[in-house]
Specification:
six-stranded antiparallel β-sheet, Immunoglobulin-like, 46 strands, mainly beta
Length: 684
Amino acid sequence: MKRHYKIIFAFLLALPFFGCESDDDALVDLEQVQAPANLGATFQITQDNSGLVEITPTGEGAAVYTVDFGDGSAPAEGIKVGDAVEHVYAEGEYEVEVTGTNINGKMASGIQPLTVSFLAPENLETGIVKDANNNYLVTVSASATNAAMFEVYFGENEDEEATLLMPGETVSYTYSSIGTYNVRVVALSGGAATTEVTEEISITDPLFLPIDFESETLNYTFNNFGGGEGTGAPVIDNPDASGINTSARVASYTKPAGSETWAGTTIALDEPIDFSSERYISMDVWSPEAGTDVIFKVENLENADLFVEATATTTVAEGWETLTFDMNEFDPTIEYGRIVLFFNFDVPGTGETYYFDNIETTRLELIKLPLTFESENINYEWAGFGGAGAGVIDNPDMSDLNTSAKVTELGKGEGSEVWAGVSLNLDEALTFENGTTVTMKTWSPEAGVPILLKFEDSDSEPDANGNPSVFVEVIQNTTVAEEWEELSFDLSTFEAFDENIDYDRFIVFYDFNSPGEGTSFYFDDVRIGDAQTEYISMFSDLADDVEVDTWRTDWSVSEYEEVEFDGRLSKHYFNLDYVGIETIANPIDATNMTHFHTEFYTDNATVFRVKLVDLGPDGVFGGGDDSESEVVIENPAQNEWVSLDIPLSEFENLAGRSNIGQLIYSGLPAGGVNVYVNNIYFRN
C-alpha cells in the first residue's frame, strides 16, 4: 500500500514551497522519491599545521547528511544542506564517507579521499582542455603529492574568487570573450606552504568554412601577394546589398595598378576543408566586369606544392553572382588549410576592386527524390543504426528491370537489431504535385521480406527515443527472390500523413522486425508521384527509336557493323579512333531529360569517351551557336559490359539540349579500339 503524506513548508529543511488552492494539491507519493546520488564533499584545510579541516557534504536529493571522518572518531550527524562541519586530523590519508538521507528516509553514501600533510605539495601537474564543441569552455584537472585540494583561478576577472578543485575531479569554466588568459592552479596541504603553477591559454574562434564575414570575433585577415603585399581584403559593409547577397558584411580585394598577372590574396584556416561529402566550393562574387576569370585555390599549410584549384568566370558586371569551383581533383590524403584567390587571373592589375562573400563547400547536385545513385557529384552519406549500414555500389544484377550502373546496398549485419536500418538526409523535402506514392526498385535474396519505408520531418520535436516525432511510414513485402522488382508505398495510407509537412529524411528498414543475419539487400530509383520515367531512345527496347541519320559518318575513323554479341543486338565499332553518329535531320530535344545512357563492351580500350553536340537555337550544324561537351572514362573495365548512366549536367560545356545532332564515341588506343555498344537513350 502506497503511503501519501502532506508536505508542509519548512519540513525537515527549507524545502521548495508549492503554492496550492487545496490541501490535496500538496499530496506527494514519497515512495517515488529517488535515493540521493553523487555523494561527496569539499574540503577547506587551515594552512597552519593544525590539521583543521572544514568539510562541506555535497550530493543530489539529500535532505540531511552524516559525515564519517575516516579516522575512527564519532561521525557528525544532522548536517543540513549547505552547512559544513570542522574536524582536526593528524597527518595522513583518509577516506571521508558522506551519507545522504532524503525526505523518505532513503540513504546513499559516497567516499571522498582526503590527504592531510603539513609538507608543501610537490610534483604539481595540471591539465587544461578546451571543449571540442565550445571554444570558450575549458576544463581543469590537477594532481600533486601531499595536496588535499586545489584552488583554480581562470584569470578573466581581477576580483575572481578561487574555484575549489578536489583531487581526482575536474572543474570547468566558460570564458565570455576571446583573448589570452593566465590560468593559475594552487595546490594546498595542511601546511602553510603552497605550490602553484600558471599556464597561459588562448581563447579564439577557429576560422573554417563556411565563411560569411559576419562574426565580430573571428580573424578574417587576408594577405596579398604579387602586388600590394601585406594585409589585404578588409571586411567592409556590403556596398551592394542586393540580388543574391543582402548580407551586411563582405570582403573587399583591390588588385593594385601594375601588379603581377598572378596577384591575389590568401588566408590560412584553423581547420582543414572537409571535401568528404561536398566537393565543390561556392563563393558569391561582385566584379566590375563580366568575363573575369577567378581562380579558387586551396593548399596544404605545410607544403604549398600540394594543392587543388579551379577556375570560374564571372557573367555579371557590377552585381553579385555565385561562382562554383570544381574541387573533385582533391587528394583525400592531404589536408587543405589555406585559401588562395586570384581575381582577373593572367591580367595585370589596374586598381579595380572585387568583393566576395559566403565561401562554403557545396554539391553541384542536390540530394532529393528521385534517388538514382548515378551521379559522381553526390556523396550519399547513409547513416546506419541498429547494426545496419549502406553504400552505393555497382549494380550486382544488371537486368531488364534495372540496368542502371549504380545501386545502394543495405547490409543488415549478423545479430543486428530488428529495427536496424539506414537514413539519408535530403536537401529538398518531398513534394506531392504528382501524387503521394513512392516507388522503389528493390532486390532481396528472399520473397516475403517486409520493407518499412519511412520519411521524417527532421526539425520536429524529438520523441522519447530522441527521434523526430513527425513522420510517415509504410510497409510492403517483397514478392520475388534474387531479382529486381518495383514496389509502391502509398504514403496517404498512413493515418498521420500530411502533405503540408516537410519530410526531409529518408529511412529504409529491410526485414523489419527480424534480427539481422548478415544479409545484403539492394534498392534503386526511389521516386515519388505518378510520373513515370520517360525515354528518348536511339537504340534500345525501352521506347521506339528516333530516326538516326547515320551510325557512322563519312568523317569517322572506325569500322562498323551491327551484330548479335553476347546475346545482345549491338553496334560494333572496331579499329576505332572516333565515330560520329548523327541526328542532324531530326535533332533530339533532351530538354526534359536528366541522363544519357549507353552500355559498352571492350576488350582493349584504356580510355572511352562520349561526346554530345548540340546544334544551338538555330538547329543548324555549323551555325555559330553549336556547343559540345565530352565525358571521359579512364581505364574502363574490359571483357565485361559497362553501363554508363551519365547526368547531363556532367556535359558541362553543353550550352543547350534542345537540338542534339551528334553523338561521338572515341577512345584509346587511337585507331585500335574494339567496342560493342547498345542501350543508347536519354531519360528523365
